[in-house]
Amino acid sequence: MKEINVGLLGFGTIGAGVIRVFQNNAEVMERRLGARLKLKSVADLDITTDRGVTVEEGVLTTDAMQVLTDPDIDVVIELIGGYEPARTFVLKAIEHGKHVVTANKALLAKHGEEILSAAAAKGVDVMFEASVGGGIPVLSAIKENLCANNFRCVFGILNGTCNYILTRMTNEGADFSSVLKDAQAKGYAEADPTFDVEGVDTAHKLAILVSMCFGTRIDFDDITIEGISNITPLDIQFAKEFGYKIKLLAIGKRENGTVEARVHPTMIPVNYPLADVEGVFNAVRLVGDFVGPVMLYGQGAGMDATASAVMGDVMAIARDQLAGHQARTPAMGYIPDCIADLPIKPMRDIVSQYYLRFTVLDKPGVVAKISGILGNYGIGIASMIQPDRKKSEAVPLVIMTHEATEALISDALADIDKLDTVREPSHFIRIENDME
Ligand SMILES: NC(=O)C1=CN([C@@H]2O[C@H](COP(=O)(O)OP(=O)(O)OC[C@H]3O[C@@H](n4cnc5c(N)ncnc54)[C@H](OP(=O)(O)O)[C@@H]3O)[C@@H](O)[C@H]2O)C=CC1
Ligand SMILES: N[C@@H](CC=O)C(=O)O
Ligand code: NA
After folding, report:
1. Which residues does the record give as NADP(+) binding sites (predicted)?
2. Is 406 within any annotated ligand binding site?
3. Range 138-299 has CATH code 3.30.360.10
4. Which CATH number is 3-134+303-331 given?
């Protein structure tokens, strides 16, 4: 029986998951492939720590170059993470004529074009299903099954760590930092968890999604990114009272030659399917012009689910190899020469409804002054929760607005923050009511 040899770089959380798939599911993969996948080498800096899986003698090495230059290895899986040395290793694998599978969204969001051009020039495949939505087969859905559609928009809950934190804060009133520690212990978080909580990891994934949905290059630095570290139990409580949940949402929209690409905490009505996505689960809602709305849901992080996506890519490459096809489907779902350069809409032009929370002195006339300033900017008030009567203490005042541009909201808030009766910088959360 024909063998396809695989080399693995990075024996961490996901690397260990990949080895588990090799060990547990060899038979089903062989029956689906008609060939055998063989894990020939695994490189990690540390090959003595117990990772919960045993590896055959002679497979482990501390020398990544041994994997990259081994003429027998057909496919290299990169699971080191980060920019370097992952970039150098992936380019080296391509130079040596190897197909590459990676889960590294950071690398792809920043250096994707360089890597994919090198792969195209060499005639090898680079696949990265695990990089977005962990185990959810979202990238293959976009570039294969849904490829006859023009996409209007894409919404995603794309970070398992943040969704796990927000879910436990919402459902149990749990404390942010202890839940983050738990997410790290479960292997969900990035090596640097600020990438998770500050929205950077979600933005890496959004960059890939927006490029693949709309067929455009995205400059990662143009994506607006806000994380969840400023979300307070008070905002979660008020959101509930208004019938919303707070989620870290990745939003991509295409409209009249521009795209929106932004990541920020967002209030979603509780009766929307995305509001029900809890814990480490992720979901992506796509709207295509013919298929309409499609929602994909599954575990967005963790050893086993992510390893499933990695091995799905290895199988796809192996199938192409066995059938004599090379790079059958363009990596980004579009022929490289047909990829556009659509600009990202500036944040000030975004239109949304807003949740505004002010910390005000409980004095007569405060509400009138704030609503007056909003009125001056033409911002309509949809509903309001007024301060409790606590005399001189500062109390929260919450206003839900009608749709307004971000420019109007930020200018109005700057004026409101100058009032003597407003005791802390005002706080806002965007609301997403239109997911069609
Ligand atoms: N964890 C998750 O749920 C998910 C992760 N991903 C992505 O998968 C990738 C791997 O993540 P994860 O497994 O969690 O990360 P880990 O940090 O658990 O694993 C990375 C491994 O790579 C090793 N490594 C670092 N430098 C080298 C090197 N020069 N040569 C060989 N090995 C090296 C690390 O060793 P050491 O620790 O000694 O530095 C570590 O064992 C990342 O790109 C991540 O973003 C994608 C989806 C989900
Ligand atoms: N740190 C990421 C891992 C998967 O991409 C997350 O929490 O989603
Ligand atoms: Na995926």
Report:
1. 9-16
2. no
3. yes
4. 3.40.50.720
Q: Which CATH architecture has domain 350-431?
A: 2-Layer Sandwich (3.30)
Q: Is 30 annotated as a binding residue?
A: no
On whether the CB atoms of residues 37 and 1 are closer than 8 A, the answer is no
Q: What span, in angstroms and rounded, lies between the C-alpha atoms of 72 and 196?
A: 37
Nearest to 211 by CA among 350, 84, 83, 330: 330
Angstrom distance (rounded) from CA 120 to CA 10? 25
- In angstroms, what is the span from residue 420 Cα to ligand 3's centroid? 50
205 in active site: yes
Report the residue among 13, 84, 186 best suited for mutation to probe ligand 1: largest number of ligand atoms under 8 A from its CB. Answer: 13
Question: What DSSP letter does each residue of 24-40 carry, written as one string?
Answer: HSHHHHHHHHSSEEEEE
Query: Would the annotation count 14 as a binding residue?
Result: yes
pLDDT per residue over 252-294, tens digit each? Answer: 999 989 999 999 999 999 999 999 999 999 999 999 999 999 9
Q: Where are the domains of the chain?
A: 3-134+303-331, 138-299, 350-431
Beta strands 292-299 and 258-269, pairing class: unpaired
The whole-angstrom distance between residue 200's C-alpha and the CA centroid of its chain comes to 8
Which two three-digit tokens encode residue 77? 């899986």
Range list of H helices, 125-232: 138-140, 160-172, 176-185, 194-197, 200-214
Q: What is the DSSP string of 274-312?
A: GGG--TTEEEEEEEETTTEEEEEEEE-SSHHHHHHHHHH
Task: Rounding to the nearest 10 degrees, give the CA dihedral for residues 91, 94, 96, 99.
Answer: 140
Q: What protein residues have CB closer than 5 angstroms to ion ligand 3?
A: 129, 133, 136, 309
What angle do the packed helices 26-33 and 303-323 form, to 10 degrees?
Answer: 30
Q: What is the mean pLDDT of residues 338-364?
A: 96
Closest CA to 301 of 200, 213, 183, 211: 183
The answer to whether 109 and 207 are in contact (CB under 8 A) is yes
Complex-level ipTM beyond the 0.90 threshold:
yes
pTM for this model (two decimals): 0.97
- Enter the tokens of residue 271: 């009766």
Centre of ligand 1 from the C-alpha of residue 82, in Å: 8
Compute the mean pLDDT over every residue in the chain, rounded to the nearest whole number: 96
Ligand 2 nearest atom to the CA of residue 105, by list position = 5
Share of the chain above pLDDT 70, in %: 99
Distance (Å, rounded) from C-alpha 356 to C-alpha 354?
A: 6
274 and 268 in contact (C-beta within 8 Å)?
yes
Q: What is the number of the ligand closest to the CA of 79?
A: 1
The band of 436, judged by pLDDT with boundaries at 50, 70 and 90, is confident
